[in-house]
Amino acid sequence: MRYCNFAGSQPYKLMPRFIEECDLAILPFPNTVTASLSSPLKLFEYLAMKKPVIATDIAGVREAVSSDHVILIEDITDPRLIDHILDLLRSPERCAAMGNGGRRLVLQYFSWNRLAQGFEREMFLTLGEEYPLAQAALEAGDERREADLYDGAATKSA
Question: Domains in the chain, ordered, with CATH?
């Protein structure tokens, strides 16, 4: 039985295919100031593709999700990491529940449009300017592609 496939560096456009093949995702963020202040985009990509996720407990992750969506570990050396991996591999029902809940969370709060608009808003605030454009698009419901993340790769197995 093969559990890991190290495919080396791959083009970004192939990532949905690789993520689709995964049973679960592990995000070993380092516990650094830089990591804790960043937006965990890879987390949102995995959740959008209905993958159960185990991630290190840093601020950016903890603020975005709950234990319903992600299993948090102290760091990559956490002795419970292996137990969490094995528990998920033995429980397709839990994986499905975490995956479905994670996808709903991303579609509701962390879609590409919402993340981009949040970033744009912060840039305007940093510059001391008003935030005019992205809010209008969000209020108009301009999220046509949000349910289609990764060109439908996440909905193939739905």
Answer: 12-155 (3.40.50.2000)
